[in-house]
Design a protein that fits this description.
mainly beta, 74 residues
């Protein structure tokens, strides 16, 4: 996979997560970085992924990356 910078304006940090929206369900989904860049998704660095929130009235579903979970090794 090639380097993909964060989608946030003026952020040059590497992306670690991908944010997508399901407008019909009013659902925002934040998951691991997708395998390829998609035109209707947003790649985010760790700082921006951590601070991401859903629009008012929407639900945000966050998928944890197992490799980043310190309790996963137990």
């Amino acid at each position: 996979m090639t380097f993909r910078p964060c989608s946030r304006v003026a952020c040059l940090e590497p992306s670690v997560a991908t944010l997508t929206f399901d407008y019909g369900e009013s659902l925002a989904v934040l998951g691991p970085l997708s395998g390829r860049k998609e035109p209707h998704s947003f790649d985010l660095c760790s700082a921006h992924a951590e601070r991401t929130s859903a629009p008012q009235g929407w639900q945000l579903m966050k998928h944890r990356v197992v490799a980043d979970d310190p309790d996963a090794a137990r």
